């Protein structure tokens, strides 16, 4: 990375901001990845205006040109997956193999939506009136504001930017200020494509300035946001007031149900993967482990044994499975929840300690609680760390009741050999995604993603369902 500060990209030009912040490596707090310009409110408004001017030009661009452009972005991401994966792991803290995998997945989003460009088919219908033809087709929604979180700094951006561009929209992109390097690298690739200036804009900066300017704007047509529930509620209120289309992915409190007939090895590996990989910093992480009484003790003992085999360390170190927590404030929050859970009566049976490793980073050992119940704050609130709580239940019906007793509804998993229970679970779990004998974390890019209740609001993301957010339907009546 260059020693020069990295600039914002507005109206086809790289622009300095009102100030600059340093991007620190959570695996090594003395390692500064780079310095990144912070956009002002005025620059954010300028980016929106540039997008407004450019969007009709991009929408009028031929389908093959749009398709080839998106393919080129995906191709470059794959060609540079090792380089960019290393950068991503360095700034976010996930192990190198996960960082490389995220870059590759980001490329798949661009390739998928490149194909979707050529699948934009209209419909016809017969009129109830004689001599009239009806045509139904989709048009771009217009200017899309995109606000992304820090835990998937490239993939979340890709699954929003790719469909926005594919369907002919212009973009104003605000990444999380904690992880600007991956977003900047993706934006630099996009900047070299043959887009009308202003079609794509990068505005790095704080939520209080750049984010607030976006969500309060009356000059955007849609806003897609992934982040916390409190912020999501504010986004919903602001966009509703301005009659701006809104799509929100927010909090979660996912559960993995383990029935008495579960394959113990599968149950343990799914719990380990879902609860602790990615340092638990996934919206799909299984922080509640709902375990039936007959298998409870064996499951806990086997999970503890596997947890003790996990290697915690520097994200770029070979063999590391659990990297650092993304930042000091998140680590302190994790530790406060550990203390709160014990004060509420849960028993810490493994991990939870802060680790002093060299070089200095934000490390903690994954933690497991037992003797927890669903009324505890540790089981009600999203922690976003490598902390899981076992909730003992009597049977399947008890497990299902506990599973659904939450304000969230993103993912849910069940480990069972019973076809009857698996089929019933698929119908009655009040979540947007259901996993059977799989970790709660891990989804595909070509199918819809999203939750229910306070986890999601608005149309689904990903797959063909993305068009519901990024396009508007027009119905045309014609007398030949």
Automatic annotation (TrEMBL):
<dbReference type="InterPro" id="IPR016163">
    <property type="entry name" value="Ald_DH_C"/>
</dbReference>
<dbReference type="InterPro" id="IPR016162">
    <property type="entry name" value="Ald_DH_N"/>
</dbReference>
<dbReference type="GO" id="GO:0004030">
    <property type="term" value="F:aldehyde dehydrogenase [NAD(P)+] activity"/>
</dbReference>
<protein>
    <submittedName>
        <fullName>Aldehyde dehydrogenase, thermostable</fullName>
        <ecNumber>1.2.1.5</ecNumber>
    </submittedName>
</protein>
<dbReference type="Pfam" id="PF00171">
    <property type="entry name" value="Aldedh"/>
</dbReference>
<dbReference type="InterPro" id="IPR016161">
    <property type="entry name" value="Ald_DH/histidinol_DH"/>
</dbReference>
<comment type="similarity">
    <text>Belongs to the aldehyde dehydrogenase family.</text>
</comment>
<keyword id="KW-0560">Oxidoreductase</keyword>
<feature type="domain" description="Aldehyde dehydrogenase">
    <location>
        <begin position="16"/>
        <end position="475"/>
    </location>
</feature>
<dbReference type="InterPro" id="IPR015590">
    <property type="entry name" value="Aldehyde_DH_dom"/>
</dbReference>
